Amino acid sequence: MIDLLARTSGLLRDDEAVLEMNAGETLEQAAGRRAPARIDLRTTVLSDAPVAIQRRVLRQALAEVRGGLRRITASHIEKARDLLGSGAGGAVCLPDGVVIRHAPGTLRIEKTRAGEAAGRTFRPAGRKGKRRASTGQAVETICPVPGQVDLPAFGVRLKTRLMSRPAAGFDPRAGAPDRVFLDADLVRTPLRVRGRRSGDRFTPLGAPGTRKLKSFLIDRKVPLDDRGRIPIVLSGGRIAWVVAQAIDDRFKVTPRTRRILVLEKETA
Question: Quick check: pTM over 0.85?
Answer without folding.
Answer: no
